[in-house]
Amino acid sequence: MWTTIMTVLLSFILTGVIGSSLLHAWQRRNWLEQQRLLDREREINALQELFDDVALFAGKRQYRMVRLLLNLGGKNKESVNKCVEEYGEAVVAWNERLNTLYAKTTILTSWKNTKQLEEIQETFVYIGHKIEKMTSDYSSGTKITPERIKKMSDALSGLQGKIGKFHKGALRFINSKKELMYKDVELTERNLYGLPTGKLFKALFKPRVERIDII
Known about the structure:
There is one protein chain. Mean pLDDT is 78; it is low at 208-215. By secondary structure, the chain is mainly α. The chain has helices at 2-71, 77-108, 111-139, 146-182, 197-204.
């Protein structure tokens, strides 16, 4: 009888200890996985913020350039002066953030994206010098010919294409990051203790798991 009682007591104690250990291990695994997920979400949010900044400030500068160029073909000097002021503000806003944008793009994405950003800046500078020369000519009374406006308008269209290409690449990069974040992780011996409980139970009850699937 004492043997039976001791067996029951030992079974109860061992079950409680093992159960508590398993529960603690599962909770820790879930916590670690949640932290990894939060880290990835923060990275994606930082990427989204970066690309939003590029879209906002590059778009403003390009738009102000278009407005100034179109007004140079008219006779309203007051309107031209206002466009010059707005364009100057857009240039300052873009240039103030440019080094930060370069650094973040390199760190968060790749040098390829930074190179694209540099090409956009080079085009901004080239077209900007041309439009500023046209503005100076306009102020001195020189008529700005439609041919000069058309040439710069075509250049601005090309610039818009570069900005659009950068944004499309940025969206693809963010989407790939999101897919990777939520993609099922292959169950291996190395990541076994870092997987959430749900993933472990799913693998446990998966029928006919091949040996090659668990490395």
